[in-house]
Amino acid sequence: MPLLANDTQGAVTRKRIEEWAAKEEKVTVVAATDAATTQAAATLAGAAEVVYTMTPTTGRALTTPTGAELGAAFTDEGVGSSFRFSVVNLAGSTHAITLTAGASGVTLVGSATVAAASSASFVAVFTAANTVSIYRK
After folding, report:
1. Averaged pLDDT of the chain
2. Across 25-130, where does the E strand assignment appear?
3. pLDDT > 90 in the chain, percent
4. Which of 16, 18, 66, 120 stands the most exposed, by the fewest C-beta atoms within 10 Å?
5. How far apart are CA 43 and CA 1, in angstroms?
6. Exposure class string for 55-91: b at 16+ Cβ within 10 A, else e
7. pLDDT for the residue numbered 10
8. Which of 50, 60, 62, 54 is closest to 100 using CA atoms?
9. Residue 78: predicted pLDDT
10. Residue 9 has what DSSP assignment?
11. Is the pLDDT assigned to residue 30 strictly greater than 50?
12. In whole angstroms, what is the distance from residue 85 CA to residue 53 CA?
């Protein structure tokens, strides 16, 4: 079946496939500051995978966007679609990074603490338009 000639209402077009393929090849590395940090929904939506690196000098929080912010950033996403991100803790021996859920619409499943000198990968799945469950892999 040929692709549709327009890209309205979720139609599959060559342009949309091209944009999807370019995004699937993109990895964005974000060097988070040594402070409590909030993930940007647009950053998460802009790449196939986002890698957050941080060297905390004390225990730190990395907070997700809200479900509504994620729903707005990820256009054309349906229930069951997903995105991925990783957290790399560059601290030598202490000071964990704890992933925390945004104010509403986000549920964390599994351990959300990334110990010093380790990393963790997460997959986030849309369970409704503005609701996301984030699973530690």
Report:
1. 88
2. 27-31, 37-38, 49-54, 60-63, 82-89, 97-100, 106-109, 113-114, 118-128
3. 66
4. 18
5. 34
6. bbeeebebbbbbbbbbbebbeebeeeeebbbbbbbeb
7. 59
8. 62
9. 83
10. T
11. yes
12. 11
Tokens of 17: 């496939």
How far apart are the C-alpha atoms of 66 and 13, rounded to whole Å? Answer: 30
Q: Which of 42-46, 75-79, 87-91 has the lowest mean pLDDT?
A: 75-79
**Nearest by Cα to 60 from 27, 28, 90, 95:** 95
Q: What is the pTM of this model?
A: 0.84
3-class DSSP assignment, residue 18: helix
Tell me: the pLDDT tens digits for 45-54?
988 899 999 9
Q: Is 119 in contact with 113 (CB distance < 8 Å)? A: no
Question: Which residue has 């010093």 as its token pair?
Answer: 116
The single-letter DSSP state of residue 93 is: S
Q: What does DSSP say about strands 97-100 and 37-38: parallel, antiparallel, or unpaired?
A: unpaired
Instruction: Give the C-alpha separation, 111 to 96, whole Å.
Output: 12
CA atoms within 13 A on the CB side of 101: 18
